[in-house]
């Protein structure tokens, strides 16, 4: 393999996107989960528009959290099963950028689609129209953090028995800051308050996760494949 | 010093230290509780109910300290591949988790007379709860992996990610709490502030040291157990087991 690092990373990114496109059901299932969970809330708490619009930011964000978590399983499992992951660790390139490419592809096929879907569900939950933009922006800033942090958990639980449930135990407590500021921004925006501070904090989380998470994931993958 | 890095020598050293540390723990607990429950005067606002802080506050402090210890030991184990550090991290987790639970339970019991309810989403209690979940995750991950080396290394990575995230979680929760509900009674803020009476401060400090020594006593006991479990195929462990069984008359 004579490709340079950037070329290899791009190749992995495109390959994961193609794989996702060939198996659309894998991509659609977490999205369907996102829609179902959000639709169950009105059935549980009642259809009063006031109650729903108050609950909407939290419900949508928690649903996004859970949907992302459910999609983490396919991040490394397939490549682990067919040995691709081992080849990646043997490649002359450092593992961290390659992992980053995989996580980026994962985000495009999970978080980004949640962002696209979110206005529809926001409408269903009677979120004020001016808060929908905020919801989309917070999801745009927050879901990459979820994918990045989740990739550490996915790498650690690779091939471990009870991996799926274990993953939720590892990852969900780490997600709380994103949930707090993501949902907080939407609530603030719905009541007409300034949201700049929330965006700054979510942006800071994103930078922090971009810097550290791929590195931790690469370390975790090496441990799991040891 | 390096002599004690080998599990065998450490096992013997820990065996000699444990009775001493255990005695010190007991004395400190008796003295601290005596000062806290009898000598310290009742609080002018909270009456006697504040006395639970002599358990609650040290438990909460230790719960955070032990997580940092765990992550530090995990890092040492990960970088220098020292078995004892791995064992320290593994042995610390259940102690940290139980002290976190203790801080949660005593906090909610203290909340009943002061806030009128067992649970409010107070920032400190909430971040203790999340810390408890992090401990659970660490222990569940280590329990799910059978190979001790892989289990220790995976746990170390998780603890390190957690230790970076804990301050962020804590300040997020504090911020979230001030946004969502009126400022509740600053339970810890007032205790740490220098306005506290010495008669209340001294038992708190002594109890903190007692919890600290308690942790080291229990972690050494647990590490001895870990060492025996991991080195069970070696000659010296077989010898210990054999001689132990002989004294009990169970071995021909």
Can you give a write-up of this model?
The complex is a heterodimer of chains A (226) and B (252). Chain A has 226 residues and is mainly α. Chain A has helices spanning 5-22, 24-45, 49-71, 73-81, 84-90, 95-109, 111-124, 129-156, 163-190, 196-224. Chain A has one domain (5-224). Chain A contains 10 helices and no strands. Chain B has one domain. In chain B, 80% of the residues lie in helices and 0% in strands. Residues 182-187 of chain B have low confidence and may be disordered. The chains are: A mainly alpha (226), B mainly alpha (252).
Number of strands of chain A: 0
Mean pLDDT of chain B: 85
Helix content of chain B: over 70%
Major sheet description of chain A: none
The number of helical segments of chain A is 10
Radius of gyration of chain B (Å)? 21 Å
Gyration radius from CA atoms of chain A, angstroms: 18 Å
Span between termini of chain B: 38 Å
Largest interface: A-B, 28 and 28 residues
Low-confidence segments of chain A, given as residue ranges, are none
| Class computed from helices, strands and strand pairing of chain B | mainly alpha
What is the string of SSEs of chain A from the N terminus onward?
A: HHHHHHHHHH
Oligomer: heterodimer
- The number of helical elements of chain B comes to 8
Q: Which sequence of SSEs, written as H and E, runs from N to C of chain B?
A: HHHHHHHH
Distance between the termini of chain A: 24 Å
| Unreliably modeled segments of chain B | 182-187
The percentage helix of chain A is: over 70%
């Amino acid at each position: 393999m004579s490709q340079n690092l950037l070329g290899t990373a791009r190749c992995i990114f495109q390959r994961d996107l193609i794989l996702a496109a060939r198996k659309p059901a894998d991509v659609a299932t977490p999205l369907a989960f996102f829609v179902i969970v959000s639709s169950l809330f009105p059935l549980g708490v009642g259809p009063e528009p006031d109650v729903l619009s108050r609950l909407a930011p939290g419900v949508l964000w928690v649903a996004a959290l859970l949907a992302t978590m459910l999609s983490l399983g396919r991040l490394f499992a397939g490549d682990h099963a067919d040995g691709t992951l081992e080849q990646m660790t043997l490649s002359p390139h450092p593992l961290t950028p390659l992992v980053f490419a995989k996580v980026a592809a994962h985000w495009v096929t999970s978080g980004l689609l949640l962002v696209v879907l979110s206005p529809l569900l926001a409408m269903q939950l009677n979120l004020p129209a001016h808060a929908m933009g905020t919801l989309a922006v917070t999801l745009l800033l927050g879901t990459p953090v979820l994918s990045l942090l989740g990739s550490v958990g996915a790498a650690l639980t690779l091939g471990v028995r009870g991996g799926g449930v274990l993953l939720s135990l590892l990852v969900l407590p780490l997600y709380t800051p994103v949930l707090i500021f993501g949902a907080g921004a939407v609530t603030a925006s719905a009541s007409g308050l300034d949201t700049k501070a929330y965006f700054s904090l979510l942006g800071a989380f994103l930078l922090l996760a971009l810097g550290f998470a791929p590195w931790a994931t690469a370390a975790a993958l090496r441990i799991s494949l040891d | 010093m390096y002599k004690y890095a080998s599990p065998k020598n450490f096992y013997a050293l820990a065996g000699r230290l444990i009775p001493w540390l255990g005695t010190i723990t007991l004395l400190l607990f008796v003295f601290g509780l005596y000062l806290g429950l009898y000598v310290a005067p009742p609080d002018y606002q909270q009456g006697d109910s504040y006395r639970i802080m002599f358990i609650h506050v040290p438990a909460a402090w230790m719960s955070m300290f032990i997580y940092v210890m765990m992550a530090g030991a995990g890092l040492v184990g990960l970088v220098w591949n020292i078995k004892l550090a791995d064992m320290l991290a593994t042995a610390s987790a259940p102690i940290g988790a139980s002290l976190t639970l203790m801080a949660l339970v005593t906090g909610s019991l203290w909340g009943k007379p002061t806030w009128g309810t067992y649970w409010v989403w107070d920032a400190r209690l909430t971040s203790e709860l999340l810390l408890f979940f992090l401990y659970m995750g660490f222990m569940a991950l280590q329990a799910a992996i059978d190979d001790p080396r892989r289990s220790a290394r995976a746990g170390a990575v998780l603890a390190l990610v957690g230790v970076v995230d804990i301050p962020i979680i804590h300040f997020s929760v504090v911020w979230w709490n001030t946004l969502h509900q009126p400022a509740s009674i600053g339970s810890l803020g007032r205790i740490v502030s220098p306005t506290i009476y010495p008669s209340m401060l001294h038992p708190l400090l002594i109890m903190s040291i007692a919890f600290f020594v308690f942790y080291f006593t229990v972690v050494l006991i647990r590490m001895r157990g870990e060492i025996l479990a991991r080195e069970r195929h070696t000659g010296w462990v077989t010898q210990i087991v054999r001689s132990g069984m002989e004294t009990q008359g169970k071995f021909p």
